[in-house]
Write a structure and sequence with these properties.
Layout lengths: L1 E8 L3 H15 L3 E5 L4 H7 L5 H8 L3 E6 L12 H8 L4 E6 L8 E6 L9 E4 L2 E4 L5 H17 L4 E5 L5 H17 L3 E5 H10 L6 E4 L1 H11 L10 E5 L4 E5 L16 H14 L4 H13 L12 H18 L1 H8 L5 H6 L7
Parallel strand pairs: 1-2, 1-3, 3-12, 5-10, 8-9, 8-10
Antiparallel strand pairs: 4-5, 4-11, 6-7, 11-12
Helix pairs in contact: 1-9, 1-11, 5-6, 7-8, 9-10, 10-11, 11-12
The chain binds (1R,2S)-1-hydroxybutane-1,2,4-tricarboxylic acid.
Amino acid sequence: MYRVAVIPGDGIGPEVIDGAVRVLKAVTDRIRFEYYEGGLDVFRECGSPIREDDLDEIRRSDAVLFGATTTPFDLPGYRSLILTLRKELGLYANLRIIPELKGGREIVIVRENSEGLYSGIGSVVNERAVDVRLITREGAERIARFAVEQAKVRGSFITFVHKANVLIGDKFFRRIVLEVAEEEGVEVKDAIIDSFTIKLVRKPWEHGVILSENLFGDILSDLATVHAGSIGIVPSGNYGEEIALFEPVHGSAPDIAGRGIANPIGAILSGAMLLDYLGLDGSLIRTAVSNYVRDGELTPDMGGRARTDDVVRGIIGEIENLLSMDEVWRDEIRVSRLESDISRMAGLRLHP
Ligand code: 48Y
């Protein structure tokens, strides 16, 4: 049995995570789901967005499934739950995959997830605020290796997006990316962040694996989601040496929380990436989602009138169809630890 720690969070987090867990249960009985609280309520109780004991248990899990949380702008001492988890679990690589649905193609973004402008180093002293944009050799090298691996499994190249014409850190980062890629025989194209935003809008599918610093990657990956029709369907994985955490790219959307209309597809496809990571093959879920999206009613963010539950049921129905049609699916999902062609599909790297 695999242990998956589930942190639903707040806003629409619990609604979409419920959908993802139901879909995962329809696909495999090899996962035990263990639920944890986190976020503002926990912070008010114990001064941290996640309880220390829970964090220890989460560390011992095989993977984490995360919904979304709301982070206030101005609560003294509060640090966002997801940023805390990325740091505490050493999740240095964020892989965001804009899915190939409705005629588009996949867009793959690798965001450095542990340093850059999210270093957490900074202060306000004498009316001067400073945020340190940290780039270390170690951080740059490991994310470059991660992007190289993504490019290799896809038979593709890397577009490194930076501001090396201005920023000292990005000149340094770029040199390391070029070194690693050359050593591994992967091509790197340069792109400057400002003009790259136009290219990403106009020609979204021509950039191979897009690699960038933490904040640049955050912004680029939100921008890229417009090509999917809605941020609500975009999944992501946060990978470390020991563990990985999977979450939809969308936020907690408090304006629609509790109304039963949140799009569960981003969370469901994050579940598919989680399966890949465990070596259980998420492609059954991906196929079921694309079959469903082709004819099924979608949630309002995608112009439809479906409710969250309709989409979840529809996707589970597709999974049942696929399973009844084909014995092979069943065997692959339940039994085997497949190798590289699975990670090619999206999820990458088997669980250590
Ligand atoms: O995961 C994301 O891309 C989110 O935008 C978080 C980020 O900045 O990385 C948001 C953090 C938060 O508000 O809790």
